[in-house]
């Protein structure tokens, strides 16, 4: 059971909930702060004080005063009118993350919602009742209004959910679990939808997948090095210490660990003096990706524990400040950075694929074909990798450089952070398929070289990989192989796998 405080949620804990189905609950201290904040809102309503979003309209309507007798109508109208997202729904794990993150933000005690609202959010998480939330429609400032409104619809018994493999009306799922919807009171609708949880949730899921891919890419690249009789000298520790980047040093150390007992690697001058950059510069390029991912991780863990709605309530209600913490610029930049970093993993992987199949660049059978000419082998797999890489280049264009005014120019600069996070997620899926193709080609190459000469650790990857994709003895529909390998890379826990291997080897 993970205890939420509003201040201490980590990416590892998010992974435990999203992958391990760990349950969550709110800390008693945090709930006490929530109650105090709620009492402040109730005093504001009772005293008819003019406070944005509590006794006024929203956005450009901030100067319109609302009578206290319409408090519930104001919140209900807000949710219904703002729930206008379009397109395919977010993946279920992203929507679940969104619910959890919104509850955690409200637990900070600055938002003025009742404890029952947070309890209801956590009940959705623990019972796997996942809101159906359309992906498109957020500008990434003034919060992820449209996506989070679809989340809020579920709390009031409207909208749809995913429940036990089915898509259904939220009330139907509530009835199955004995849950009652809530009636939103003053500030609560605004408190739920005014935040960055859509972009952050997509970013969290994207980061967890990207981190796993980054580890996988190093082990797959190590097998490619063996398939091409790569020069191991380029990974020597002193080379990378001389430059000084920790992530580059660590990547080189893992490559050395994976290949420590390989009989397929060579020394400089043994076959050639230098390898091409896509082999020789793996630590430099992959290390730079790790630098970007470290930046993304830092920003996500701040945002996961941030108060991102408006207004925020301080000093037991004596201070209610309209600010701009809902603006997604920090996450927009982080997501654009992640897009570029992961796209580069695919770029260099595709170049290694080319070196594995191009007969002008190696001494392997052309296109790794079992019968060159009669059978095409991996020829078109490289086409697919090239296509995915090119698509990534389009998706990697930074969304955060764009802005468009909204709400009659009241909200005149926005982040587009949710677009950035969605594009990052797509780049990650594309990159996984590119790495799947590299794995298929690398396995074929080491078969020609002699599997018995492989390093212990890459041989383990080869054996597991061959359980997923058979050796190419005859041309077949390789689309199935690519998708099978990609699905395997997504589900196998390579993060722990590679760390375990490094510890076993004793060199990292």
Describe this structure in words.
GO terms for molecular function: histidine ammonia-lyase activity. InterPro entries: Aromatic_Lyase, Fumarase/histidase_N, HutH, L-Aspartase-like, Phe/His_NH3-lyase_AS. The modification 2,3-didehydroalanine (Ser) is found at residue 142. There is a cross-link at residues 141-143 (5-imidazolinone (Ala-Gly)). It is a single chain. This protein is mainly alpha-helical. It has 2 domains: 2-195, Fumarase/aspartase (N-terminal domain) (Fumarase C, Chain B, domain 1, Orthogonal Bundle); 204-505, Fumarase C, Chain A, domain 2. The protein contains 19 helices and 9 strands. The strands form 4 sheets. It has a 3-stranded antiparallel beta sheet with strand order 4-6-7. A two-stranded parallel sheet has the order 1-2. β1 (2-4), α1 and β2 form a beta-alpha-beta unit. The longest helix is centred in the last third of the chain and has 33 residues, at 417-449. The protein is elongated, with a radius of gyration of 26 Å. The two termini are 32 Å apart.
